[in-house]
Amino acid sequence: MVPPTTAIADVLQLKGLNGWLSPPLRPFYRSQAVLGTARTIRVASGRGDDGLKPLHRLLDEDLEGRVIVVAGAQAAMGAMWGEILTRAALASGAFGALVEGGVRDADAFRDLGLPVWALNEATAGPGPDVHIAEVGEPVEISGVRICDGNPVVMDWNGVVALESTDMIGDACAYADAEEEVVIALRDGATLAEAYQYKAEVVAKLRHP
To answer: What integer is the mean pLDDT of 80-89?
Structure first.
């Protein structure tokens, strides 16, 4: 079971951690819960020796189960991701893309079914003055460190990146407790009565 990103984010907060990426990332196409592993790449200003070719080579890899994380893409003057890269990512088995920058061709994401979260939408392409600085190295988006291979969860509500899957069990327990609260409210309980189902789980998870 993949718990909701809202439950994962709440558990991270209770433990004094971070990991949620929305905001700043927002959905340009979102789907039911997806658990993948990060494939990291970092964009930087300047033309560089290979330009964007390392990104194209990455998209020709076996990306089964991977979520492509493009950090630093706000350095580009326009969109770093669109329909062409989406089709390449899907052909290689990718589960989704997170772009710290602009995207375009959003209708294609919906038609093709690849979840894409990004900072903004742009009409023009990336322009010539950016290059791929690193592939497979740790990156950071909005203070969240993401290493190649880290678990990434995307769903209707948001995106979170984790250091490991150890947090998933706690998030499942938290999500079950929230569902118990909802059921109790439907059955006529007061909020104070219903919240007790969640209060016990919160107390166990809270960071001292």
So the answer is: 97
CATH number of 5-164: 3.50.30.40
Number of residues written out for the chain: 208
Residue 88 and residue 85: Cα distance in Å, rounded?
5
* Amino acid letter, 172: C
* Residues 123-169: tens digit of each pLDDT: 999 999 999 999 999 999 999 999 999 999 999 999 999 999 888 99
Helices (H), the chain: 5-14, 53-59, 83-91, 106-112, 166-186, 191-205
Give one DSSP letter per residue of 123-153, joined into a string: SS---SSEEEEEESS-EEETTEEE-TT-EEE
Closest CA to 79 of 50, 54, 40, 43: 43
Q: How far apart are the first and last CA of the chain?
A: 28
Share of the chain above pLDDT 90, in %: 87
Q: What pTM was estimated for this model as a whole?
A: 0.91
Hey, where are the domains in the chain? 5-164, 167-203
**pLDDT confidence of residue 48:** 77
